[in-house]
Amino acid sequence: MKQPNPQPTASTRANNTFLWTLLGCGGALFALAALTVAGLLAFMFLGDREEQASDPSPDTSSSQAVSPKSGEPETVGDTHLAYSEARGEDPDHDYVVRARYEDESGGGFEIGIENDTGRTFEEDTAGLMNRQDIGPWVCGTQYEMNVCMADDERGRILLVPLDTDAALSTIAAWGEEFMEQLK
After folding, report:
1. Which end of the chain is least crowded, N or C, by CB within 10 Å?
2. 8 A C-beta contact, residue 101 and residue 129
């Protein structure tokens, strides 16, 4: 007569012990890897928030006073200085002045005065569509927005309205008032 349940041999028990050991170590390594990934993701997201808090981008919707960094006026017409960049902050351009002015409705202008010996004023204005000369300003449409440019002893001036459909005469008049107030 055969025995209904043969007794397991020692080698079978050793195989089961080895299997359970491998399974336990694998689970522990998986848990460790998951914790490491979670920690790295948390560090990346929290680190990004801390950088934003320590160096916030300019808030254009705020009416807080911004101190001029390049001698630009604090107000021009009904617009106030919302952003000012000091000379040398942009490594790709030699801006003498780079600023944004906003009115209460969120409209306004961005202005940049740049010294670039690699281009001429004529080269910059050659691509303007619907070109109009308004006083010292050469205005027209560029990249589907109305802009005005002028050349002055400080450098080449580019004036871009925040309202891309602003009338060229309005842009030039604001630019003229800005240049009169620029220190």
Report:
1. N
2. no
